[in-house]
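Subject: sequence -> structure tokens, single chain

Hey, anyone have a minute? Need the predicted structure for the following. Not urgent.
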Amino acid sequence: MMLSPPYYLLLALLLSLCNDIASAFCPSNDVMSSSRPRFSPLSMAASNDISSKIRYLGSGDEAIIRPGVVLVAPAHEYDHFLMKSAVFVYAIGLDENEDMVIRGVIIDHPTAFTISEMSPNVMGSLSDNLMFRGGRSGADSAMLLHSAGGADGHVKGTGEMIGSSGIYEGGVVSAMEAADAGLANPDQFKFFFNYMQFRENELDDMFKGVVDDDGKLDEWVSLEVPPEYVLDSDVERGEMWSKLRNTIREIRQG
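Reply:
Had a minute. Here:
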């Protein structure tokens, strides 16, 4: 497993669910500090012509991991949260103990609840958006990801794009206003509670891979995908994982 080339990392803000919308979507105290960690230089793997929207960034020890990529679990992953999962990496940096950590959210683990059922102050066009379970960590904190930020976007207060993903974090009040005014589609917004957190040595263990029954090495894979893949709320658990696994298979068969 290899991390991306060195640069200062912009970390997404975690948002806490509470009754007051002004405090519900504000920086959490445990957000990781930005850093210049040890990275190994690595050239990006070329995209296969099968899909112009998805870029293959390697697997196992050769996988590129950086903010904005999606990590796709192998079939042999049996962790309760990670089995049949696709994880969008939104932050890499140092935690309060100065340990390197990687944070991401599982993009295809929907709950039975809408955001308004979890936080009544999210109203209007976004109120019916489903809440997704991003992982096991986070003390039930919540966050908003969307594709309506940036200089030309209609959602303000979101900061920089996460990597090159076309996805931004935060700005829930502005998001509600933009959606209600018809300036942004509710499908551009996705709410998560909790997240997955990994230390570098944990990822090293995860990415070792296992030889399957057919004698092939089955490993975690890193991809760049369109923002619509990450923000798709019309998915069952493991559905995006299955879709991306099929794409990986096609890319490898070339």
